[in-house]
Every structure is written in structure tokens, then in C-alpha cells.
Write a structure and sequence with these properties.
The complex is a heterodimer of chains A (about 200) and B (about 220). Chain A is of the alpha+beta class and about 200 residues long. In chain A, about 50% of the residues lie in helices and about 10% in strands. In chain A, the strands form two sheets. Chain A has a four-stranded mixed β-sheet with strand order 2-1-3-4, with no helix packed on it. In chain A, strands 5-6 form a two-stranded antiparallel sheet. In chain B, the strands form two sheets. A four-stranded mixed β-sheet of chain B has the order 2-1-3-4. In chain B, strands 5-6 form a two-stranded antiparallel ribbon. Classes of the chains: A alpha+beta (about 200), B alpha+beta (about 220).
Chain lengths: ~200, ~220
């Protein structure tokens, strides 16, 4: 079945999906729309669904995590699907991905702050000790540190590793005003995980 | 493997998991904590929150992850509540995630300290033009289009369990600012509720004196 993934020309919420399918050697059309193109064409047709969207068969499906899980099922790396078939292992993967996503609400809230200085101060606080994002980064760092294999869950790569790699790394890229590029420096295990996946 | 759900004595985020396991005839311990008991347990499992799912020796957080697991191991009329077909499962997962979007404005409202402002925001979100209303309409339309009456595909899945458990509490009168009439305009959602409520296992599970007043909405 042909797959067509539609999103903005940024990593954002589509990158883990793109990476999972790529790791699995699954062919897909990686369609990128500008904000204007999205607003003019698809948005009205699929509302209230948002991008990323996957066109598969005669269906249009939204929700980035649902799409990532699907991509994990149809993509195999070194013979194993990126989403485990064993329910208990899959539960662990789903839980890990949901932990990674705990970073989003406070980031989302930061985008709504209109005063630039206030926004930057808010973000800097999130990643300092005691902040919401810092709390979850510490926890993820601990979980990775406990892993014998170095992978987020179990002994081989899963969508949990992909979610961590794609969603956490951009925090230090400097594209978020006020988010220091040093924000991941204290997390040795997260850095080691990034090196492993790269 | 032994299964235990740990949560407050309310539907909240644990009800879909409880109902899924019940539909599948999977035995589980349904442990209820008071706020005080949770306060004591909290630091042990932090940053995990309730509900917690104990599976054998392990403890898991994240209610949707728990529900998906419960739906995989629970079979109703011979079929797991979480489809084995990846594309059907994708539609079920999409439906589950839409529920998160539906509740986002309400979830965000809990942090608001000005209660008048909070209640006004909630009222606006469930009224026509509001964000919650938008998703309720979408789901109502989807249910209306369904030939089988089920949320996704032709048989009962985790999507139906989520719709039943999460949407109904909106009309229980527990959320200041959200009127008990908020679901009145959505005929298909109410028809779906009735269909699920009348499944014998579901009916039996909610029969009798409601555990707390809110449970009346499931009868």
C-alpha cells in the first residue's frame, strides 16, 4: 500500500515517522507543505485534523504518535519491527514514548507567551533544575542509564529510541528562543544515546 | 501474570482500562487510594502519576499505554479490543489521540487560579464554536457514518471503550462551568453510549448502586 506523509518542511512531529519508515526501508512519499499551502488546501478538507497526515489506501489519518506506532509496526530494522509484537514490551515502549511527550505541554505553553523576554525566561526556567522539562529529562536520562543495551527499551532499537532522538535533541539546537544550547549538557546518558543512534 | 490498577475511587483516567479488562474477562485487582495514601506513595514512583498498572513485578504509568496493553490482552467475542491489523489499529490509535485533543482545553483549565475565568473558558469550549465542541461534533459525525455503529471498523474496540468512558463524564456536572446539557446536541454520541451501556457485561459491571454519583452516567 502506498504511503504519503504530509507535513511542514521541518522535523517537528513528523521526523520520528520519517526516520522509522526510513530505517525500515519502507517507501513513502515525503510531502512537505508551506504554511500557506496547508492553509489554502488540505486544512479545510481534513479539519479538525492537523498535520502530520498519512495517506494510506483510501484513508487520511492524523495524530503523530498513532502514525509513529503504525510506522513502527510496518518497519523492520535488522529483522525486528520497530514496535514490539510482545504486549509487555510494547507497553514499556508506549510508556516511554508518552514520557518523552510529557515535554510538550510546557513547551506548548511557552509559545503562547507574547512578551519575548518573558518567554525566554520561562523556557530557561523549564530546563533548569526544578523545572518541568528538567524533571522529565532527568528521568529519561536515568532510564537510559539503567539500560544494559543502551536502547530505551529492551535489547534493540524501537520507536522509543526514535522518539527520544527526534523530540529531545532539538531542544539544544538553538531554534527555540531562550532555550539554552547547553540544556542537555548535564545528561550524560541522553548524550550517549544520541551518539549511539547517530 | 497478575494485574493491578491503582487509582482514585473515580472513573477518571483508569476507567477505560478497568472496562477493557472486564470486557475481556481478565481478572485484575482494582486498588483505590485516597489522596493522602497517594501523597505517601508519590515520591516512590515519581515522576510517574496515577493511574499505575502493575503487571507481574513491574509498574507502569501513562494511562493510554496501559489501556492499549489491556486492550491487547482482552478479547470480546473472540477478538482483541486492540486490532491486530496495523491499519485498523492505526485508526483506533488516532481515535484515542483525538480524545486527548478534545480534553486539552479542559485539562489546561485545571491550572487556572481565577475560577470565574476558568469556568467561563470551560463553558465557551463546550459551546458551539468552542474547541471541545469541535471535536465532539467530529466524533458525533464519525459515529453517525459508521455502518456498524462502532467507532472504528465493524466490531467493539478500544476506541468504543474510550468514547464511552471519557466523553460521558462531561455531563456529570462535576466540572464547574460545563453544563450537564453539554452533550444534548450529539445524538450519535448518545446512541453509541446506549449501545455500549447495554452490552450485557457492561450493564452488569455498572449495575446496582453507583459507587459514586458520577458512575450513574454509565448505567
Amino acid at each position: 500500500m502506498s504511503l504519503r506523509l504530509v507535513y511542514f518542511p521541518v522535523p517537528g512531529r513528523a521526523e520520528p515517522i520519517r526516520l522509522a519508515l526510513t530505517l525500515g526501508g519502507v517507501e513513502f512519499k515525503d510531502e512537505r507543505l508551506s504554511g500557506e499551502q496547508w492553509g489554502k488546501s488540505l486544512k479545510g478538507e481534513v479539519s479538525p485534523k492537523q498535520m502530520p497526515l498519512l495517506y494510506v489506501g483510501d484513508k487520511v489519518i492524523g495524530q503523530s504518535l498513532a502514525l509513529l506506532r503504525y510506522a513502527g509496526k510496518v518497519s523492520k530494522f535488522e529483522g525486528k519491527p520497530l514496535y514490539p509484537e510482545c504486549p509487555e514490551l510494547a507497553l514499556e515502549v508506549d510508556e516511554f514514548v508518552d514520557f518523552v511527550c510529557e515535554l510538550f505541554p510546557s513547551l506548548g505553553a511557552s509559545f503562547k507567551i507574547t512578551d519575548q523576554a518573558e518567554k525566554e525566561a520561562f523556557r530557561a526556567k523549564l530546563v533548569s533544575e526544578g523545572g518541568d522539562i528538567h524533571k522529565w529529562l532527568s528521568y529519561l536520562d536515568t532510564l537510559i542509564g539503567k539500560s544494559k543495551s543502551g536502547f530505551a527499551v529492551g535489547d534493540y532499537i524501537t520507536i522509543a529510541d526514535i522518539a527520544l532522538f527526534c523530540f529531545v535533541l532539538p531542544l539544544k539546537s538553538g531554534w527555540l528562543d531562550g532555550m539554552p544550547t547547553t540544556c542537555l549538557d548535564g545528561f550524560k546518558n541522553l548524550t550517549a544515546h544520541k551518539e549511539k543512534l547517530s | 501474570m497478575s494485574i493491578k490498577i491503582v487509582y482514585f475511587p473515580m472513573p477518571g483516567r483508569a476507567e477505560p482500562t478497568r472496562l477493557a479488562l472486564t470486557l475481556g474477562g481478565v481478572s485484575f485487582e482494582d486498588e483505590h487510594l485516597t489522596g493522602e495514601q497517594w501523597g505517601k506513595m508519590k515520591s516512590e514512583v515519581s515522576p510517574k502519576q496515577l493511574p499505575l498498572l502493575h503487571v507481574g513485578e513491574r509498574v507502569f504509568g501513562q494511562s493510554y499505554a496501559q489501556l492499549r496493553y489491556a486492550s491487547k490482552i482482552s478479547k470480546f467475542e473472540g477478538r482483541p479490543l486492540y486490532p491486530t491489523d496495523p491499519l485498523l489499529a492505526l485508526e483506533v490509535d488516532e481515535f484515542a489521540d483525538m480524545m486527548t485533543d478534545l480534553f486539552a482545553p479542559i485539562a489546561a483549565s485545571f491550572k487556572m487560579t481565577d475560577t470565574a475565568e476558568r469556568d467561563a473558558l470551560r463553558a465557551k469550549s463546550v459551546a458551539e464554536g468552542g474547541d471541545v465542541h469541535k471535536w465532539l461534533s467530529f466524533i458525533d459525525t464519525q459515529l453517525g457514518k459508521s455502518k456498524s455503529g462502532f467507532a472504528v471498523g465493524d466490531y467493539l474496540t478500544m476506541a468504543d471503550v474510550i468514547a464511552f468512558c471519557f466523553i460521558q463524564p462531561l455531563r456529570a456536572g462535576l466540572l464547574d462551568g460545563v453544563p450537564t446539557t453539554c452533550l444534548d446536541g450529539f445524538k450519535n454520541i448518545q446512541a453509541h453510549r446506549d449501545m455500549i451501556a447495554n452490552i450485557p457485561i457492561v450493564k452488569a459491571y455498572y449495575a446496582g448502586e453507583p459507587k459514586t454519583p458520577v458512575y450513574k452516567i454509565y448505567q
